[in-house]
Amino acid sequence: xxxxxxxxxxxxxxxxxxxxxxxxxxxxxxxxxxxxxxxxxxxxxxxxxxxxxxxxxxxxxxxxxxxxxxxxxxxxxxxxxxxxxxxxxxxxxxxxxxxxxxxxxxxxxxxxxxxx
Amino acid sequence: xxxxxxxxxxxxxxxxxxxxxxxxxxxxxxxxxxxxxxxxxxxxxxxxxxxxxxxxxxxxxxxxxxxxxxxxxxxxxxxxxxxxxxxxxxxxxxxxxxxxxxxxxxxxxxxxxxx
Lengths: 116, 115
Prior knowledge:
The structure holds two protein chains of two kinds. Chain A is mainly beta. Chain A has strands spanning 4-7, 10-14, 19-25, 30-38, 45-51, 56-59, 62-67, 72-77, 86-94, 103-106, 110-115. In chain A, the strands form two sheets. In chain A, strands 2, 4, 5, 9, 10 and 11 form a six-stranded mixed sheet that branches. Chain A starts with a strand and ends with a strand. Chain B is mainly beta. The N and C termini of chain B lie far apart (36 Å).
């Protein structure tokens, strides 16, 4: 069964601190993995995309890693800011030969709260 | 323009009302999606349109009726909804070709409340 599991479910950190969010998946065949940031009541916004051959990718203070062998990904946030408070969702895309679109599998997200 | 817009932002309707949600993109994308998201849950796929044709219907009740008038517009017609249909409805679009990183761009959503 194709699944995406995220941990922790929620996380509180102080402004300026670093944190790491985890994502484990069983989606197959794997196409790519994205981390999205979703502010409350808003649509998700893509932070990074990882394909099978990529191990690490950075986007400003966000660094994503991917271990395709163990089917694990992490999102590291450095020097957190108050505006980082949001839900971070791991989304894995399955390759689908029968469709030009593929299928997305969403994790439940990690709710990050940054305190001043 | 790299934006997906949705209207209205908020909608309150009774169970006997008929209303429509609208979504628009001008990125030249040929695939458009409707998702339903309940609080603290991930988005759930409802419908997918590819090149203005309905390609996926995730067994959504008939009280939800999608429409794709052209490649830039996607509507979701609502009729005789139930209170449990209250949720954030997200629209997304993507290029529509399997290019490996066929990113879906999400709109801000419509917050729907059914009384």
